[in-house]
Design a protein that fits this description.
The protein is α/β, with parallel strands linked by helices. It has helices at about 15-25, 65-80, 100-110, 130-140, 170-185, and strands spanning about 1-10, 40-50, 50-55, 85-90, 115-120, 150-155. It has one domain (about 1-185): P-loop containing nucleotide triphosphate hydrolases (Rossmann fold), CATH 3.40.50. Helix 2 (about 65-80) packs parallel to helix 3. The two termini are about 20 Å apart. The chain binds guanosine-5'-triphosphate (GTP) and magnesium ion.
Length: about 200
């Protein structure tokens, strides 16, 4: 039994980086360029303890109707063929939160598929990365009408910085890997979701 996890979001927000964090390898292409890097759906096998996963890297949404239609169609196709167990909306704390992309996906797959939020780029958060959600999670729900079943606050960023002798970025990245894998484990339990009809 293979659970299907689909990561989506606005282009450039760190979708492919998050996929790599989940699978524990650098297999999805990541780019710093202004052009969209991921052009087609990437599928990666992964495991968390005894749970087998297929993790899908989705081309990011941009503002054009064509991009929205194509991205939603890719997600619907995965759901029809293999049944999506968990959707992860990859968000950036200051400018990656786009309710219309969330709504487009939510209305296409229906309420039976859970959508979780993973907020990236939190390596410079003061104190615990989870503090971001304590300050902002309520606003996402009340003002932006984003209803997530669960969330994780992470960084998928570089490993180079050191802070007073502690490799803070490495620690935060390890913490992020644990948080996002725990999130997936909570939602990928029996029974596996069947392909949608
Ligand atoms: N500092 C920091 N940089 C990040 C983080 N996540 C991603 N990045 C950087 O953001 C840039 C874009 O990351 P990608 O993973 O390619 O983003 P994407 O959403 O897949 O982008 P497209 O495929 O182009 O739509 C890269 O330079 C990443 O290294 C993070 O948590 N912190
Ligand atoms: Mg990408």
């Amino acid at each position: 039994m293979i659970y299907v996890v689909v990561v989506f979001g606005r282009t450039g927000m760190g979708i492919s980086s998050l996929v790599n964090l989940i699978i524990g390898k650098t297999e999805a292409n990541v780019s710093n360029d202004c052009q969209q890097c991921t052009q087609k759906v990437g599928r990666y096998d992964a495991g968390i303890d005894d749970t087998k996963l297929e993790v899908c890297d989705i081309p990011g949404f941009d503002v054009s109707k064509k991009s929205i239609d194509n991205t939603v169609a890719s997600i619907v196709q995965i759901h029809k063929k293999r049944g999506i167990d968990l959707l992860i909306n990859c968000l950036q704390p200051t400018h990656g939160i786009a309710p219309r992309y969330y709504q487009a996906v939510a209305s296409a797959v229906g309420p039976e598929v859970p959508i979780a939020a993973v907020v990236t780029h939190l390596e410079r958060e003061d104190g615990a990365m989870e503090n971001w959600w304590s300050r902002n999670g309520g606003t996402l729900e009340s003002q932006k009408e984003l209803k997530f079943v669960d969330h994780a606050c992470v960084t998928t960023g570089g490993l180079c910085a050191t802070d007073h002798g502690h490799d803070t970025d490495t620690l935060r990245r390890q913490e992020s890997e644990r948080a996002v894998r725990a999130l997936i484990s909570r939602h990928c339990k029996e029974p596996k979701r069947p392909p949608s009809s």
